[in-house]
Amino acid sequence: MGLRSLAIHLDNGWDSELAINNINNSVEKLGIELKIVSCNWEEFRDLQLSFLKASVANAEIPTDHAILSILYHTAAEKEIRYIISGGNIATEAIMPESWGYDPKDLKQIKGIHQRFGKIKLKTFPQLTLFDWVYYTFVRRIKFIPILNYIPYVKENAKKLIEKELNWKDYGLKHYESIYTRFFQGYILPKKFNVDKRRAHLSTLICSGQMSREEALKEMERSPYPSEKMMEEDKEYVIKKLGLSREEFARIMSLPIKNFQDYPNNHSLFTKLNFFVKLAKKKATLN
What we know:
Layout: E1 6-11, H1 17-30, E2 33-38, H2 41-54, H3 61-77, E3 82-85, H4 89-92, H5 106-116, H6 129-138, E4 142-145, H7 154-165, H8 178-192, H9 197-206, H10 212-219, H11 227-240, H12 245-253, H13 266-271, H14 273-283
Parallel strand pairs: 1-2, 3-4
């Protein structure tokens, strides 16, 4: 397509070996330059623990915010106008708002960390609301959801990259990260009664890539590939976060909170809704 592409990867300390192999195989076979941004582990662990202790449904906000931040900052630094996104309507259009909160809200991140954290965030990638508006309107950096411009069928895409890039399947959506696999497969169902497969499979039904009967059959299975993997991940995550099993159990038993129980910019985002929608629209235009 004549594109000079730069691949960006956030290493937050939770990459599975399979994920690392898939990344290396892909960029090598496609001849794409790769930039890896690594989080300071002590800072990032402290931030992840803060969100677990805050007892909110979206404890993945730190990772999502960091990814968004490094994409915009790198694009601005290298004077790149377009960020090619894999987000798409065909497989990711449905997600209940109550299951999470906007990862752009740096005020929320700082508020939760100030309450529960112990280590100062000196290097964590941050994107302020001003940064986002500046990069979108002034620097005119645009997100291009490229898969929305082609007939995108998930299973066909997986077969293609398996053949051409030696890519290996993770089993379920976002299970390339050990932490995300444990969060989505264990913490969310056990504590919040949330199974994200309901949203993922519903989207595939709406886009005609799966029948309702197939989705219901899939939902009968455990969100974890195996009980053995779940126990191994549980032990690994607890140890890597520096927790004891008793401390983790206490976190799991904490009362569920809403994002509005902590500092946030939700009212500001609501008041600026027109500008937010305009920014999103501009970000998808060529």
